[in-house]
Amino acid sequence: MCTLEKRGQLFLLKLTGDGEHRLNPTLLDSITSAITQIRSDPSSSQSVLITTSHGKFFSNGYDLALADSDPSLRVVMDSKLRSLVADLISLPMPTIAAVTGHASAAGFVLAMSHDYVLMRRDRGFLYMSELDIELVIPPWFAAMIRMKIGSPAARRDVMLTAEKVTAERGLEMGIVDSSYGSAAETVEGAVRLGEELVRRGVDGHVYGGMREALLKQVLHTIGSNESVSNRMRNSGSKLCHCWSGWLTSTCFCTGFGGIGGILRYQLDMNAFGEDLDVYDDESD
């Protein structure tokens, strides 16, 4: 769940609890409801949104355990996240993600959906896990990454090496705008930035329209329903575990046991399972 607090012209949206803030239908609905409440506020076009979290995770991506229990929910989660990101893009105000913990896969995309990304440097990674779990990202993720990560080398390291990006590395890559020594300092930095943006007095409706124009391709891709074909190299038990737990489609398998077999599958992009085993390092 999340809470929403208004401080002057700042809206502080916080993902609550000590869990991983997995993006399940309940949490996505809670965030979307908060965004709707913000949008309906008479002062919204002169305000700033700050999104942050409690605990060691900003968000660890989709709720995979829930999807295992009811595979139809993967479609629901994908649809709700698309809608939420579209809402953030059209929101008539600047948006700031104060990343105070790990942001993985869909959680990383949620952070990048904000105009500014601030991050603590003493803990936490930005991590696109799909290479490690042998999945191709959905096109709308790719569109967001192309828009938000300007350097081809940085995009390569995020997507094609699955680098776990620290705050300082994120600054080098141009993903993170500023870094701080703790979670509290990160939120304080976001508040200072938000207050500075409010003082500029920009019309939020104009700002939101400019953002929509800038991210037109992202919005177009979010709205598409194209299917994608993917190939996964067989990696033995890991492949079988992933297959049985998340994806549902037509396939054929050859060469089990890690000896070069190929699994071919086709699935609707709305049912894309994007982060099977995202981040579970309890030492951080």
UniProtKB/TrEMBL annotation:
Pathway(s) the chain acts in: Lipid metabolism; fatty acid beta-oxidation
Gene3D superfamilies membership: 2-enoyl-CoA Hydratase, Chain A, domain 1, 3.30.1330.30
Source taxonomy: Eukaryota, Viridiplantae, Streptophyta, Embryophyta, Tracheophyta
Keywords of the record: Fatty acid metabolism, Isomerase, Lipid metabolism
Organism, scientific name: Brassica napus (Rape)
TM regions (residue ranges): none
Keyword flag Cell membrane: no
Keyword Lipid metabolism: yes
The reaction(s) this protein catalyses: a (3E)-enoyl-CoA = a 4-saturated (2E)-enoyl-CoA; a (3Z)-enoyl-CoA = a 4-saturated (2E)-enoyl-CoA
Name of this protein: Delta(3)-Delta(2)-enoyl-CoA isomerase
Family: Belongs to the enoyl-CoA hydratase/isomerase family.
Leader sequence residues: none
Enzyme class: isomerase
Any GO BP annotation: fatty acid catabolic process
InterPro entries named in the record: ClpP/crotonase-like_dom_sf (IPR029045), Enoyl-CoA_hydra/iso (IPR001753), Ribosomal_eL30-like_sf (IPR029064)
GO molecular function: delta(3)-delta(2)-enoyl-CoA isomerase activity
Enzyme Commission number(s): 5.3.3.8
